[in-house]
Amino acid sequence: MRVVIAEDSVLLRVGVQRLLADEGIETVAAVENGDDLLDAVTEHKPDLCVVDVRMPPTFTDEGLRAAIECRRRHPGLPVLVLSQYVEERYAVELLAGGASGVGYLLKERVADVKEFVDAVRRVADGGTSIDHEVITQLMVRSKKSPVDKLTPREREVLGLMAQGLSNTAIAGTLVVSDGAVEKHVGNIFAKLGLEPSNSEHRRVRAVLAYLDS
């Protein structure tokens, strides 16, 4: 796997690069601003971009906007946002703009190396890895959301789906049967107006559907 890292902090940039190297993942470019990220993606055509939200010159949302532009120029490019913040406006645009190969993790909530590397591989493979806290914050801030139709248990299942868990993993987490989870997932699809499907992209669309409103 070939990765481009965009992070303004030298220590974090080098740290992530070494962590990935230990897992056999090559960093083809490590940059500190959005413009350099766009150039690096065009030059190297990586399998994944790991991007911080706040980078020079204003340290507001340059990284996230650059990630969105990368996906616009290179449709389907997997992007994993690794940030201290949930930037609502552009987070919605990033997550709603494509159902595959997208992740948004909060730095302080990445519990261990394995969890992070699993997220990197999942997103690079076209899956999703969205921090439950990110989903929660966006749900709270969204005044009118299709997710409002869901029961508390269905919301819980949706949150675990957002983290990339399979039905079996969700069942283990909630200590319920696989059949019960399948029923909840079916209800989520129905209430969000999505026809049931075995497609992983359909699962991601269920997670992100409320962002389209």
UniProtKB/TrEMBL annotation:
UniProt signal peptide: none
Record-given protein name: DNA-binding response regulator
Domain HTH luxR-type: 143-213
Family matches, as InterPro entries: CheY-like_superfamily, NreC/VraR/RcsB-like_REC, Sig_transdc_resp-reg_receiver, Tscrpt_reg_LuxR_C, WalR-like
Superkingdom, taxonomy of origin: Bacteria
GO molecular function: DNA binding
4-aspartylphosphate: residues carrying this PTM: D52
Swiss-Prot/TrEMBL keywords: DNA-binding, Phosphoprotein, Transcription, Transcription regulation
Response regulatory domain location: 2-122
Keyword Transcription regulation: yes
